[in-house]
Amino acid sequence: MSIKISETLTFECETGNYHTFCPISCVAWLYQKIEDSFFLVVGTKTCGYFLQNALGVMIFAEPRYAMAELEEGDISAQLNDYEELKRLCFQIKKDRNPSVIIWIGTCTTEIIKMDLEGMAPKLEIEIEIPIVVARANGLDYAFTQGEDTVLAAMAHRCPEQKTEIEKKKKIEDKSIQKIFSFLPLKTKEKKKKSLKNQFPLVLFGSLPSTVASQLSLELKRQSIHVSGWLPAQRYTDLPTLGEKVYVCGVNPFLSRTATTLMRRRKCKLIGAPFPIGPDGTRAWIEKICSIFNIQTEGLEEREQQVWESLKNYLNLVRGKSVFFMGDNLLEISLARFLIRCGMIVYEIGIPYMDKRYQAAELTLLQETCKKMCIPMPRIVEKPDNYNQIQRIRELQPDLAITGMAHANPLEARGINTKWSVEFTFAQIHGFTNAKDVLELVTRPLRRNNNLENLGWTNLIKIQKG
Amino acid sequence: MKLAYWMYAGPAHIGTLRVASSFKNVHAIMHAPLGDDYFNVMRSMLERERDFTPVTASIVDRHVLARGSQEKVVDNITRKDKQERPDLIVLTPTCTSSILQEDLQNFVERASMSSDSDVILADVNHYRINELQAADRTLEQVVRYYLEKARRQGNLNISLTKKPSANIIGIFTLGFHNQHDCRELKRLLQDLGILINQIIPEGGFVENLHELPKAWFNLVPYREVGLMTALYLEKEFGMPYISTTPMGVVDTANCIRQIQKHVNIWSRILLDKIFDFEPYIDEQTRFISQAAWFSRSIDCQNLTGKKAVVFGDATHAASITKILACEMGIRVSCTGTYCKHDEEWFKEQVQNFCDEILITDDHTEVGDMIARIEPSAIFGTQMERHIGKRLDIPCGVISSPVHIQNFPLGYRPFLGYEGTNQIADLVYNSFTLGMEDHLLEIFGGHDTKEVITKSLSTDTDLTWNSESQLELNKIPGFVRGKIKRNTEKFARQNNIPKITVEVMYAAKEHLSA
């Protein structure tokens, strides 16, 4: 099998036999993000065992999530779903008293067609706690898309924007150029010192609060005020949404949330590359500024400074090759950043590619490849891990970014790996955290510099195949 | 529905996958949605496996929901057959596929026509049995399949090996210290002059299973996995089996005596020879294993009557309970297991060695029990370790569920004579060391500056005045929580809202009275 590296972005689709985490794993970071929430995963032992094993230690810190473990009686409808959920939710209310209970629907609830969406509003009235339903199941979604389903469900719960403040402001020339990008709004008034965006801007995507405030601060420097985050630190602080509200995503896997915000909440979506890496962050800020017709200030210098500070890492990665097996949808943005760092990307595996939501990111990827004079990587949607491993064998990349199922076996075969999951949990957004991305990427390379001369790279016995 | 935060035994398919992937050149295909293949992560991370885990998923997605798997499962089986040329492919149902009620058996039959590998459907009901039961069942199923196949093909060899030999049944991947135990058992049998016929499933080839009946007897070290297979072999081929776990000095000797009994039945006839293992047992017990000497040594005196709690799978919990009670003189206040299906056996085993028995798979019950008893040490699973952390009680891990720490690189068996040493170390190190214990008692501890933050009681209506707080801080760290709770309990019982030094002493007197 020979592999050609093409000159344009090519999209392929394989069999979908790949390893990724189940989307219910989103409870692991979301329960920590939304402090007053309680996540109830309605599923089987299989789901529970996954959470327990994949999320390891967190489970012991008295987490605000639990399984509603379905038993045979639930499956065969001998028990009344509503009564059962009511019993559990009252227990949760008694023990934890959360401000919101989020029901996570799983494969099983899909198959037995448990009407979670139907039951929630009724129970909500009885129990007097909001119940949000998100179907984050492995039948439809992969890993980080779980967060997407939760945020999309939460978008419905955000309070409606009161429009009176905006009434004074006049909007001219609000014609839509494409579906996702807008012509700049022309407004004559320009206040000097105060924040300049005349319409509220809500950012969506769950980030650790420090990262969220870093990004807000970056925008504030360009005199853009972030009026809220979806999700906020507390459920009770959900941002207001409405027709006049602009929204922008911070993560590449939030296409459902974006769609919900646009279609159901009538918000205006700013389609931008994602603020991962200094190049991404700058492009993200520039795009937002352009929407509000604001001239950016000092962004180029700021980006340059960050690149300057990354010098040591860049020396390590320059000219090295990367292979993304694909499992968390951050792949396009990470690949784009790594190409800008001087790396060669052979393949970007990705579970699901929303070309519209990621349009700006894809364009930036293409531009970056041209700028760096590097051949365009192939983008493989729904990859097939078996085939990918054959390709990895052939290409011998310097680094494979992969799930934990393949990391150790690849290492034993002399291929450096980095667990892709770490990119989901590490702080990788904004100017400040560009270093963390490279810290992760270079870790196996640095480790190897230390072990290089020991002569035991390949640690398996040679056998057939 | 059950509100669950944590579970001791995993879902059934995990058991099946553990058995399948322990065999060499066997591939398992799960009929499961995306993301259910986290077994690969567990195996790759916990066991630090160098090879790709031979488990793939035939993905159940929306299309499958709408139209059924149709050709998908068959295609995936035949594809895997071509790619990896395994000897056997095990189609594994999951909770999802058991609700879909597709005719997986039919897929298996169709696929086996077009593939060179054998194909079987793991016969496990997801909603009725757990990981361990499923593993037991799958192992039996695989063994039965190959013995019946051999019988059909006429190449079943049931003549015994010339020298006495044994099969070790039930060593498998992700088992608690299984690899080390396996090595220790091999050494033990070698010492006794007994050959190893086969070890299954770990590292075994299914193509060799038809040779199983050649062994003189079967050794099943763990109750959870292998008993069904041993029973099947006994019924079909009259093979005797030993299910006494050789854990601890006493049971190791018991196990060896049973081996002697079984071996002598045949060796008297075939070899005209009688084996006598008693000198070996005596030598090992008194001089090779340090455990017997340790329990006589003055160190161990300090452990006399100390309270311990044991919890784990049936095999380990029962064995450790007996070791603590009989071999070390420790008082086991409560012992328990999450193997509810094996309740009867467990109760019978530990009846006379503990104050109470707890059979549950609800970790909060276990936590409450521990908090109530306040033992000096816990011997349990990773869960109990965390309960112990919260309550400030040391814990030695003696059973799965496992954690990466339970896959040590060094040699740490729990079975056999080296196992007795390891267990003695584990037990001894879990209790506060004797002299340190005394010194702490005499001098009031060396961490008196520590602020008390961990507390189980949620009520805040009690206040400690500054003197009593100071006095409390003088108490050694590891008993401070207990004293605090006892004092507060006493105060509450007597309606005393404010705790003074006097109240503390009154409480102490009240308790010791």
Automatic annotation (TrEMBL), chain A:
Domain annotation Nitrogenase/oxidoreductase component: ranges: 22-442
- On the tree of life, the source organism's domain of life is Eukaryota
Q: In which pathway does it act?
A: Porphyrin-containing compound metabolism; chlorophyll biosynthesis (light-independent)
* Positions bound to [4Fe-4S] cluster: C22, C47, C107
Keyword Chloroplast appears in the UniProt entry: yes
Please share the entry's free-text remark on the cofactor: Binds 1 [4Fe-4S] cluster per heterodimer. The cluster is bound at the heterodimer interface by residues from both subunits.
Q: What is the lineage of its organism?
A: Eukaryota, Viridiplantae, Streptophyta, Embryophyta, Marchantiophyta
The protein depicted here goes by the name: Light-independent protochlorophyllide reductase subunit N
Q: Which reaction does it catalyse?
A: chlorophyllide a + oxidized 2[4Fe-4S]-[ferredoxin] + 2 ADP + 2 phosphate = protochlorophyllide a + reduced 2[4Fe-4S]-[ferredoxin] + 2 ATP + 2 H2O
Q: GO CC: one term?
A: chloroplast
Q: Which GO terms describe its molecular function?
A: 4 iron, 4 sulfur cluster binding; ATP binding; metal ion binding; oxidoreductase activity, acting on iron-sulfur proteins as donors; oxidoreductase activity, acting on the CH-CH group of donors, iron-sulfur protein as acceptor
What organism does the UniProt record list as the source? Answer: Fossombronia mylioides
GO BP of this protein: light-independent chlorophyll biosynthetic process; photosynthesis, dark reaction
What this protein needs as a cofactor is: [4Fe-4S] cluster
Q: What is its EC number?
A: 1.3.7.7
Automatic annotation (TrEMBL), chain B:
- One Pfam annotation reads Oxidored_nitro
The Nitrogenase/oxidoreductase component domain extends over 12-431
For activity, the cofactor(s) needed are: [4Fe-4S] cluster
What EC number(s) does this enzyme carry?
Answer: 1.3.7.7
Location in the cell reads: Plastid, Chloroplast
Residues reported to bind substrate: G434, M435
The protein's annotated pathway: Porphyrin-containing compound metabolism; chlorophyll biosynthesis (light-independent)
Query: Molecular function (GO) terms listed?
Result: 4 iron, 4 sulfur cluster binding; ATP binding; metal ion binding; oxidoreductase activity, acting on iron-sulfur proteins as donors; oxidoreductase activity, acting on the CH-CH group of donors, iron-sulfur protein as acceptor
**Enzyme active site:** D299 (proton donor)
What this protein catalyses is: chlorophyllide a + oxidized 2[4Fe-4S]-[ferredoxin] + 2 ADP + 2 phosphate = protochlorophyllide a + reduced 2[4Fe-4S]-[ferredoxin] + 2 ATP + 2 H2O
Report the co-factor binding details. Answer: Binds 1 [4Fe-4S] cluster per heterodimer. The cluster is bound at the heterodimer interface by residues from both subunits.
Q: Which GO terms describe its biological process?
A: light-independent chlorophyll biosynthetic process; photosynthesis, dark reaction
Keyword annotations of the record: 4Fe-4S, ATP-binding, Chlorophyll biosynthesis, Chloroplast, Iron, Iron-sulfur, Metal-binding, Nucleotide-binding, Oxidoreductase, Photosynthesis, Plastid
Domain of life, per UniProt, equals Eukaryota
Domain Light-independent protochlorophyllide reductase subunit B-like C-terminal, which positions? 464-508
Keyword Nucleotide-binding in annotation:
yes
Presence of keyword rRNA-binding: no
Group of enzyme by EC: oxidoreductase
| Amino acids binding [4Fe-4S] cluster | D36
Q: Which NCBIfam families match?
A: DPOR_BchB (TIGR01278)
UniProt similarity note: Belongs to the ChlB/BchB/BchZ family.
Q: Which PANTHER family match?
A: LIGHT-INDEPENDENT PROTOCHLOROPHYLLIDE REDUCTASE SUBUNIT B
Oligomeric and partner information: Protochlorophyllide reductase is composed of three subunits; ChlL, ChlN and ChlB. Forms a heterotetramer of two ChlB and two ChlN subunits.
Would you tell me the protein name for this molecule?
A: Light-independent protochlorophyllide reductase subunit B
Q: Tell me what organism the protein belongs to.
A: Fossombronia mylioides
